[in-house]
Write a sequence for this structure.
């Protein structure tokens, strides 16, 4: 499982402070989706996908204007500074699997 990290000062950051409620929700939904999919903050700019995973895709231009998202080559790249990298998540999962296997072998 991955976790989406929002620091206690997240809502006070200049890029976030002025967002509408719809844009704030859209940004958090996108962070959660990217974490779950291990995309390192890369969100496909496919309208069908965006309409399915975001409750307010119409807020995307506001997120781009705020500098939280960058539109590049058929994708949006999210501000990923507080999030865990996919490689780190996969390494942690690998270590957990190995630890669980050792535990089960000792128990058997």
């Amino acid at each position: 499982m991955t976790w989406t990290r929002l620091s206690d000062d997240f809502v006070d950051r200049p890029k976030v402070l002025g967002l509408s409620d719809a844009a704030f929700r859209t940004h958090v939904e996108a962070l959660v989706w990217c974490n779950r999919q291990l995309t390192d903050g890369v969100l496909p700019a496919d309208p069908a996908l965006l309409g399915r995973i975001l409750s307010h895709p119409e807020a995307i231009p506001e997120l781009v204007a705020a500098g939280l998202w960058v539109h590049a080559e058929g994708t949006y790249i999210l501000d990923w500074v507080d999030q865990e990298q996919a490689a780190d998540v996969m390494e942690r999962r690998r270590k957990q699997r190995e630890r669980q296997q050792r535990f089960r072998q000792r128990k058997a």
